[in-house]
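[INFO] parsing input record for Major facilitator superfamily (MFS) profile domain-containing protein
[DEBUG] input buffer:
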Amino acid sequence: MVYEGVALVTLGTVLGYLTRNTVAAAAPTLMEELNISTQQYSYIIAAYSAAYTVMQPVAGYVLDVLGTKIGYAMFAVLWAVFCGATALAGSWGGLAVARGAVGAAEAAMIPAGLKASSEWFPAKERSIAVGYFNVGSSIGAMIAPPLVVWAIVMHSWQMAFIISGALSFIWAIGFPPVMAWLIFYKHPRDQKHLTDEERDYIINGQEAQHQVDTAKKMSVGQILRNRQFWGIALPRFLAEPAWGTFNAWIPLFMFKVYGFNLKEIAMFAWMPMLFADLGCILGGYLPPLFQRWFGVNLIVSRKMVVTLGAVLMIGPGMIGLFTNPYVAIMLLCIGGFVHILTRHCLAH
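[DEBUG] output buffer:
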């Protein structure tokens, strides 16, 4: 029963990243049909990223006020509608507005997943739970190229956005027997299908700070003065551009640099995301293994994993040295693996 909550969160992350990566997979077609330059495409990506960044603290606050269940459903419906509305765009400006709206709504995706994991898993098991729900980000990015290319070949680029948005909408609201967040997600204390033993195991395993009065929250100033906050924020600030590049530019990179057509993009653009999935899962298991192997505490073991990932990220930085597209794909796969491995250790 405990893992049903993670399954719901993971599916939401899959569909959220599908909507996020639809524009990247469709980029070659969009640029041709709407006469969009590479620079204008970068503005579309920047609109998404800027809205996503600005809205993250707002989304976190809304989730705290409305609760995980209602808050996440609301944001998911919004990003689904905005993704579908992207099909109405007729220029790069329209795409930028639509993708900015999607980014603003999707800012709640990761905070909601972390919040749900903290509600459903005791502290000692949470790293594994977070690893599985984070898998959804790379699964969504992985299925976007083949799904979007299929929609474009069989219908149009507009249909790709409509399908992506519709899937998220169905997940959020639900049409039985579809697994739907709003219908099935409940806090452990309200879940009738849990045994008393399971409920006690979850609740008693929470850290003390999760059990204090929720009215006692840190102010923005207190957060900004917290060294632990900066210890997480600065590495994420330096590392996230790599993931943003992977999500937004791999299909277009293959198209522009190596001359891949749509079908070849569908065949290869998902591979780095598959390796990202592996890194996400392994990120939950490596720190405890390092603890046992090297006799260090959990914090030090996480730092070791982060350092290993940072060193291996040199690989994708060397892509420009090779003209063989398959070597480039291999290096991108290494980058996807180690980035998500590192990000997982910084996420909790």
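[INFO] The domain at 2-346 is CATH 1.20.1250.20 (Growth Hormone; Chain: A;).
[INFO] shutting down worker
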